[in-house]
C-alpha cells in the first residue's frame, strides 16, 4: 500500500455528512489520541462535501475545505483516502469513488448498493493501482463481519453464511411478534421512531439485505459480486396470525439472507424464514443484526451487534481508515479481484427444505382433501395440519407444514391450490430453515 511508509498524518476527504458522515467526524475528533496511539499517526480531515453547506451537523468543519461537488472533492490535492458516505449505486457516489481511484486515492465507503452493483469492477480498478477499498460499514453496520470473514476466517473454506442483515425488518418482525399488531401498523410506528425511511421499500422488500448478502457471498466464497442472482422477497406478506402459528409450531419468523454452496452451485436468497426458537439467531431481536458463518476448521461462528446508526457505522468506517493508516493491505474481497472465480448460481427452484403454508379456505367438506391431493400429486409430504375453530360456509385460516421437499414441487402444488375456488386468498408460504 502506497502510504505504508508514511508517518505523517493520513489525510482524508469525506463526501457525505449525514448520519454516517457526521458520526465519522465525531469519532475521529473524540478518539484522535487513541487512534494516533494505535496507528502511529493522526487521521486528518482536510476536505468535506455535502449538499447544504449551512446545515449544523454537530461537528467542527472549520479546518476542512468545503466542496459543493463531491466529485471535485475526490481530486483535492494531497488526499490519501476519499471516504464516500453519500449512498446510491449510481450518480455522485459512483463518480466520486471512480475519480478517487483514478487519482490514486484509497477509498472507504459504507455504500452497499454501490458495491453490490459495481463491487468487482471497482475492486479490480483499485487493486490494479495498488489501492484499497474499505467497506466494513456496508454490511451489518458495526459488526466487523467483513474483517471477520476475510481475515479472521481466512484459513477456512466457508460453506455457508446467513444472517439478519436489515435492522428495520428485524425491528418490525419483533414488534409484530411481541405486540400482536399488524405489519402496516408497526411500519407506521417504525417510521415515526426513525427506524424506517419515509420510503421504506428498499428495507421491507429485502433489497437492502440482498445488497449486503451479495457482498458477503463474494467475501465468503471468493466469487465475483453477483447481486442479480439473489432471490429476494420482503416481509410485506407476513401477517400477525403467522406469528401465532409460528409460536405454536416452535418457530420464530426472521428475514434472513442466506448464502450457501450446494451441489447445484451457489445459493443466494433473502426471504422471511421460520427458524427454531432454540436457534441462536432466533434470539436476535429488535434493530440488532447477526451473521453466522460456517467454516470447515472453525465450525460455526456467530456475530451479533448493531447493524446501523451513527456510532456503530462510524466505528466500522474508522476501522477501515485505521487499516489504511497502518499500511495493512488485503485483497478487497479476500482474493485478488482478477482471481475471483465465477460460480454457477443455484436456482431457487432447487432449494430443498420444509415449508409453512397458510391458506384462507371456505370451511366446507372436501376442501382439505383437495389441498392434500394437490400436495400428494407433487410428492410433497405434509407434516402438520392446523385449523383453529370452525365457521361452516365462511373463510377460515388453515396452516400446514411439510417435510423436506424441493421448492419447484412446492411451487407447483401451491399454484394448483391457488386455483381452487374455495381458496379465497393467495396461499402464503414461509420457508422453514433448521439451523
Ligand atoms: N445510516 C446508517 O445507519 C447506515 C448504516 C450502514 C451503511 N449506511 C450507508 O452509508 C451511506 C450514507 O448513509 P446516511 O444514512 O449517512 O445517509 P444520509 O444521512 O442521507 O446522508 C447522506 C449525505 O450525503 C449528502 N449528499 C447527498 N447527495 C449528495 C450530492 N449529490 N452531493 C453531495 N452530497 C450529497 C447529503 O448532504 P446534506 O446533508 O447536505 O443533505 C448527506 O450529508 C449510504 O450508502 C448508506 O447506505 C448507512
Automatic annotation (TrEMBL):
Its EC number is 1.1.1.3. Keywords: Amino-acid biosynthesis, Methionine biosynthesis, NADP, Oxidoreductase, Threonine biosynthesis. L-homoserine binds at residue 197. The keyword Oxidoreductase applies. The keyword Amino-acid biosynthesis applies. Residues 356-431 form the ACT domain. NADP(+) binds at residues 15-22. Pathway: Amino-acid biosynthesis; L-methionine biosynthesis via de novo pathway; L-homoserine from L-aspartate: step 3/3; Amino-acid biosynthesis; L-threonine biosynthesis; L-threonine from L-aspartate: step 3/5. InterPro entries: ACT-like_dom_sf, ACT_dom, Asp/hSer_DH_NAD-bd, HDH, HDH_cat, HDH_CS, NAD(P)-bd_dom_sf. It comes from the Bacteria. GO terms for biological process: methionine biosynthetic process; threonine biosynthetic process. Coiled coil: none annotated. One of its GO terms (molecular function) is homoserine dehydrogenase activity. NADPH binds at residue 112. The active site is at 212 (proton donor). Belongs to the homoserine dehydrogenase family. This is Homoserine dehydrogenase. It comes from Azospirillum brasilense.
Amino acid at each position: 500500500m502506497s502510504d505504508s511508509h508514511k508517518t505523517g498524518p493520513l489525510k482524508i476527504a469525506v463526501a457525505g455528512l449525514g448520519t454516517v458522515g457526521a458520526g465519522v467526524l465525531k469519532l475521529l475528533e473524540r478518539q484522535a489520541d487513541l487512534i494516533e496511539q494505535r496507528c502511529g499517526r493522526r487521521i486528518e480531515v482536510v476536505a468535506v462535501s455535502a449538499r447544504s453547506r449551512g446545515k449544523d451537523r454537530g461537528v467542527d468543519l472549520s479546518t476542512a475545505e468545503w466542496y459543493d461537488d463531491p466529485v471535485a472533492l475526490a481530486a483535492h490535492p494531497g488526499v490519501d483516502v476519499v471516504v464516500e458516505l453519500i449512498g446510491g449505486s449510481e450518480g455522485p457516489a459512483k463518480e466520486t469513488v471512480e475519480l478517487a481511484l483514478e487519482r490514486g486515492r484509497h477509498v472507504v465507503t459504507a455504500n452497499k448498493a454501490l458495491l453490490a452493483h459495481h463491487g468487482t469492477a471497482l475492486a479490480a480498478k483499485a487493486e490494479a493501482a495498488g489501492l484499497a477499498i474499505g467497506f466494513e460499514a456496508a454490511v451489518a453496520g458495526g459488526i466487523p463481519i467483513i474483517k471477520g470473514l476475510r481475515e479472521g476466517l481466512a484459513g477456512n473454506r466457508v460453506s455457508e453464511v446467513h444472517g439478519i442483515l436489515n435492522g428495520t425488518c428485524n425491528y418490525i418482525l419483533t414488534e409484530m411478534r411481541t405486540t400482536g399488531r399488524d405489519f402496516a401498523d408497526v411500519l407506521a410506528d417504525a417510521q415515526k421512531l426513525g427506524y424506517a425511511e419515509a420510503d421504506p421499500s428498499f428495507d421491507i422488500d429485502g433489497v437492502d439485505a440482498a445488497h449486503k448478502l451479495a457482498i458477503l457471498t463474494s467475501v465468503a466464497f471468493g466469487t465475483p459480486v453477483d447481486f442479480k442472482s439473489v432471490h429476494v422477497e420482503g416481509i410485506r406478506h407476513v401477517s400477525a396470525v403467522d406469528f401465532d402459528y409460528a409460536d405454536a409450531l416452535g418457530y420464530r419468523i426472521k428475514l434472513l439472507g442466506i448464502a450457501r454452496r450446494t451441489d447445484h452451485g451457489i445459493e443466494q436468497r433473502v426471504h422471511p424464514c421460520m427458524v427454531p426458537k432454540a436457534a441462536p439467531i432466533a434470539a436476535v431481536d429488535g434493530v440488532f443484526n447477526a451473521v453466522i458463518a460456517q467454516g470447515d476448521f472453525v465450525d460455526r461462528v456467530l456475530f451479533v451487534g448493531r447493524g446501523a446508526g451513527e456510532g456503530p457505522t462510524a466505528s466500522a468506517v474508522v476501522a477501515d481508515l485505521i487499516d489504511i493508516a497502518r499500511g495493512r493491505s488485503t485483497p478487497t474481497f479476500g482474493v485478488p479481484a482478477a482471481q475471483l472465480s465465477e460460480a454457477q448460481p443455484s436456482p431457487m427452484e432447487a432449494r430443498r427444505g420444509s415449508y409453512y403454508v397458510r391458506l384462507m379456505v371456505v370451511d366446507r367438506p372436501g376442501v382439505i382433501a383437495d389441498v392434500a391431493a394437490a400436495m400428494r400429486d407433487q410428492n410433497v409430504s405434509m407434516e402438520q395440519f392446523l385449523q383453529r375453530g370452525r365457521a361452516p360456509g365462511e373463510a377460515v385460516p388453515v396452516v400446514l407444514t411439510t417435510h423436506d421437499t424441493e421448492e419447484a414441487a412446492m411451487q407447483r402444488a401451491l399454484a394448483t391450490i391457488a386455483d381452487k375456488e374455495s381458496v379465497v386468498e393467495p396461499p402464503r408460504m414461509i420457508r422453514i430453515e433448521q439451523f
